[in-house]
Design goal:
Helix content is 42%, strand content 13%. It is α+β, with helices and mostly antiparallel strands. A two-stranded antiparallel ribbon has the order 1-2.
């Protein structure tokens, strides 16, 4: 049983490597590339990610200040979860 959703897994992948290709995100998360595209679009639409165009590729910036939406997490933000789950302090770093 997975405790985290595919959306959370996708955010973690992007937090660790903002320039990761969606094909690689899909492989790491265990979903199709099409599903990874939908998840990233959901996260962009919800304001958790910004899509940055770099030449022919996209990279992403996480917006860690965005609040979690469920009432149980009221007063907390996405950056808190990513900081706990990331081994390194890479959240929202974009080079």
């Amino acid at each position: 049983m997975d405790v985290l959703t595919n959306h959370a897994h996708t955010l973690l992948c992007i937090a660790r490597d903002p320039g990761l290709r969606l094909r690689d995100v899909a492989e790491q998360v265990g979903v199709t590339e099409r599903a990874a595209q939908r998840i990233v679009s959901d996260l962009v639409d919800a304001g958790y990610l910004e899509r940055l165009r770099e030449g022919r590729r996209n990279s992403y910036r996480i917006r860690p200040e965005r609040p979690l939406r469920h009432p149980l997490e009221h007063g907390h933000h996405i950056g808190e979860i990513l900081e706990v789950l990331n081994d390194e302090t890479m959240v929202n770093q974009h080079v």
